[in-house]
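Re: [help] complex structure
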Amino acid sequence: MKSLREEFLRTNKLPHIWCPGCGNGIVTAALVRAIGKVGFEQKDVAVVSGIGCSSRAAGYLNFNTLHTTHGRALAFATGLKLAQPGLKVFVVMGDGDATAIGGNHFIHAARRNIDLNAIIINNHIYGMTGGQHSPLTPEGKKATTAPEGTLEREFNILELAVSAGATYGARGTAAQPRLLEKLIVGASQNEGFSVVEAMSTCPVSYGRRNRLGSAVDMLKDIKQRSVSVEKLETKAETTRPRRDIAEEGAEEEGETHDKQEEVIPVGVIFSRPAPEFVERYYRGLNKEKEGKEGKEEKEGQVES
Amino acid sequence: MVYRQEIMLTGAGGQGLILASIILADAAVQDDKNVVQTQSYGPEARGGESMAGVILDIDPIYYPRITSPTVLLSMNQQSFNKYIKRAGENCLVIVDSTFVEDVGNQPAYSYPITARTRLELEKEIVANIVALSIVNTMADLVSRQALQESVLKYTPEGSSDLNLQALELGRQLTHSYD
Amino acid sequence: MKYRKPQLLQGNEACVEGALDAGVRFFAGYPITPSTEIAEGMARKLPRVGGVFIQMEDEIAGMAAVIGAAVGGKKSLTATSGPGFSLKQENIGYAAIAEIPCVIVNVQRFGPSTGIPTAPAQGEVMQARWGTHGDRPIIALSPSSVYETYYLTTAAVNFSQKFRTPVILLLDEVVGHMREKVSLPASGRLMVEKQNYSDIKEYKPFDERKLPPLVPFGEGVYYHITGLVHDEHGFPTRHPEVVVRFMERLHRKINHHRKEIIMTDYTGHVEPKVCIITYGCTVRSARAALQKAYLQKRWPVSLLNLQTLWPFPAEEVKRLADRCDYLLVPEMNMGQIVGEVEKYAHGKAEVLGINRYDGDMITPGQIFQHIEGCFS
Ligand SMILES: Cc1ncc(C[n+]2csc(CCOP(=O)(O)OP(=O)(O)O)c2C)c(N)n1
Ligand code: SF4
Ligand SMILES: [Mg+2]
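Output below.
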């Protein structure tokens, strides 16, 4: 296993702003290792992010980095990728960033199958603003804006992504950084819209309020609930965590955690290559150019 | 052409009057006249009435709205009723008698534009070009040459003959009713 | 300068031509009347010059994509109208703080909200200035004819590049939709701001003393762009001294170039008693009124056409206030730029607003009446 490539980090910007025990650092490190592993050149990589704790990752990475507005990272990245098709673009977002305020851009980036690698750090909460519920806060969990537990149901990001047209979807966790790294490598290799959901921890704004223990406890819990997709029996199970599986899993492991908790299917959830948008756009452009050269003459008549 | 002409082409949406106004305006550019073309947008332009305006002048045109038309073409009754109120005393009024049956006391030149187009060219779609040709022949707005070039420029390539015939039909109609 | 043959062109089409001639190679937007022809023109023409057109999922995304493309080194433009202009505001502020060159065309229609979608108005003069939150300068230009639309679009692109700032082109439904005869400069012969990335080694994207061009992503120069207040290298800071220097620089880069940015067009009497100050399509009505008052009646009347609305042509107005008894400010709203005129007239001339807000243009007659009132 290769270690972290120093030149990919802005070491003078460290230490980072994240709280002790925050999963953001682990996910960011996995991203950096993955970029090193696929062998992208530093100058060809751009990291775009939104607004939130997770999106601060961009500032610590020594690439061309674009820290945008809340929810809009994918739309910025779409413009950037179309302008510079050679760039390998990673888009780091929080769960609220990607699926609440940015939900529309998320499904449309998937629909276009534009070659962007979306890394969604899912800590189930609005971390930066101090713990309000997000579309990925599990039903019943508490947040400052859901003091009795949220009534709302959560999204399944990857189900959303696959039905919107994404061509690669994987789920990893901050508790298994090596797997996460592998999944990000997989995303980088997919020509099209790739989504990696990184289950992460926010002990400060989520864990504490929901009595999930220390950061270490939270990571342990995530690890225990993680089940490799290959081990799950049916396809359906790979896109929707099921309560019954959670119970089975718990029995198997001899653990006694909350029956309400779901398993976390991890690994490559879907991979179904399809033509990529930017490549198709430029291919069309070249054709158009060839066809139009004669016509331009007529339009450009010049008179003194 | 006399000093400043304000031409209003009115009718139902889909009768091609906006295209006719653009063709007229483009021909005026070729004749090196100053021109402003406007058209009604919005719900009324969707299915209902359609109004396109062309102002021609040898001086610069500032205010782009038609205040009082010097030429009014109405291709249906509804638009005639609506816009005739704006016509000044010396306004040249031309109507398509296929659809405009009642012009009241208004002195108007009435031609069965659509009916004759249907009959002679078997394609109602060029009634707008026939109407435009009538308007131009009667009001002496732009040169024949320029109008013909603009018609060819703005209509589909395969339909050149049909459109040239439409221009000719318009001229014939004008003279036959002299 | 060489010109193309005279042609019939719509205002919105002239905007497309101007943008392309100034080197715009990226457009992202979302359809909305009365600006849609700009998107449609771009969709047709950009691919022919190797450019990129994309219809985004909404106006917020359109603005974001335009900024993203600018970061990727393309000259970028988006076009919209009222409701869409509101949606773009947050990201316009982003472009301002992150100093990303881009042009936002807003073809004004009657508002607020959906208002009267196809009716003209000039209701976004203040929104152009203050629409996005925070204190920052902005450049906004407003054309009154199809030709002006062409050349103010090119000016907008050039200013955006030179000053690394969003520039707003405030069109209105009348100018955007009307067709006129124009002779455009021969394609490609226009003065266009050139990029020069010579001292890349010492590159500070947000240099405090200079205004370096943005080195596009992908060139091997690693820096950070953020909407947070940042230092010379783009990294977030809250250090009060740096914040103050940052804010002052943001304002200074526009304010110190007012002479270059402010474009006005003056016609009429040299020692006027009455001056009409206006912009956009209302200039046309004012010209017609001026023709009658000045050329026919021979009254000492003049007209100042504000092609640049922001930064506001304060000096021009001050000078006129010194000389005139009356400043008439017709606009298709209930009074927006008139407040600026009052501010700089400073009581030296009487400032009278002339307003219309029923969804149509101010007529020459309406303006003439007010002129007449000043002479009786
Ligand atoms: C338009 C806008 N609305 C709201 C905010 C405030 N805000 C900043 S971050 C954030 C939520 C962050 O949550 P998430 O995206 O999950 O990221 P995390 O901090 O958890 O990593 C919110 C609501 C903002 N910056 N901009
Ligand atoms: S608030 Fe939560 S997400 Fe944000 S840095 Fe702290 S632990 Fe991490
Ligand atoms: Mg979150």
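Residues 47 and 263 of chain A are 31 Å apart (CA to CA).
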